């Protein structure tokens, strides 16, 4: 299949020119060629407006469409995976927040079977992100303080063994007792470690990076802020070339001007995430996060909250995050890279998040308003908003 587009954004690891006309050739679910200008043969799909780019890679999804991964059964996992392409997301990390170790382990073991049985055609599951329970109580955010615990060797071993082949990312606070040894154990097991829900000093974050931590979870939120004498988690995240920061660009968790500042301060080291919770894609009402109630209030884009008003995830779409990043001053190529190649590389998936020969043919077409019009996973059309270019193409 050959797709021609008015504008390609390839998310290459280099400064990109202004998006221009080009084409993507697909063979057996893989990109076999990418080029600029006119295609070498008549296109099977022609996208006369908007932008064709890699499918989005979201490393923090607590839930969506009414389901939360902490409590959802296999059917609801499948529903989320099937519907996420409508937001442009083609790969994601289901996220579990702080809970008792035995409960997290049981969910990880169950996730392996659930993911193996997911029907084809949905967003890819990259592995599970466990956010907590090894966090700082004073920076817990919406996490239950009764379940916060230290990363003892036994606790870490339980999660690593339960998550064999499924545990891909752990968020922890590097200043808590035992954290550095835990980072060593986790990274040795191939798990990406992220600093988050942390009151660490800049020096403590740097030491975590010395031990192998490579990410900061939801920059600016639930962490020691930037200070002019003590840079904190934020200051180290923005200045340490080893660290890539997740950013919730819903303009509620982080002000627009500060989102723009992050892109300018750490070019190539911002990964857009939704931190979406079960209320995302749903009407206002009560839902669950971590098995406990959250309320989605009325209002476009308003995030869910706990009863005390604490922010509890978001209701953000990834295409919305890209649009917000652009509105905050990021270039479109930079915003797209932050939602595609950068998180894909961070999680160890260089076959995702780019339009390049040999990469998976996971693509999203955004309209001029940067809203998803169509999405392909492994070259198969899995979502369309009904625009004729995709409906009449015969693809998928």
List the defining traits of the structure above:
alpha/beta; TIM Barrel; 11 helices; globular; Urease, subunit C, domain 1; four-stranded mixed beta sheet; nine-stranded parallel beta sheet
What does this structure look like?
- By secondary structure, the chain is α/β, with parallel strands linked by helices.
- It has 2 domains: 2-53 and 355-391, Urease, subunit C, domain 1, CATH 2.30.40; 56-346, Metal-dependent hydrolases (TIM Barrel).
- 26% of the residues lie in helices and 25% in strands.
- The chain has 11 helices and 21 strands.
- The chain has helices at 74-83, 101-116, 153-162, 179-188, 202-210, 232-239, 256-265, 318-327, 332-339, 341-346, 388-391; strands at residues 2-8, 20-27, 30-36, 45-47, 51-54, 56-61, 63-64, 67-68, 89-97, 124-125, 128-131, 167-172, 192-195, 215-216, 244-248, 270-273, 285-289, 292-296, 363-366, 372-377, 380-384.
- The strands form 5 sheets. Strands 6, 9, 10, 11, 12, 13, 14, 15 and 16 form a 9-stranded parallel beta sheet that branches. The protein has a 4-stranded mixed beta sheet with strand order 3-2-1-4, with no helix packed on it.
- Helix 3 (153-162) runs parallel beside helix 4 (179-188).
- 57% of the residues are buried.
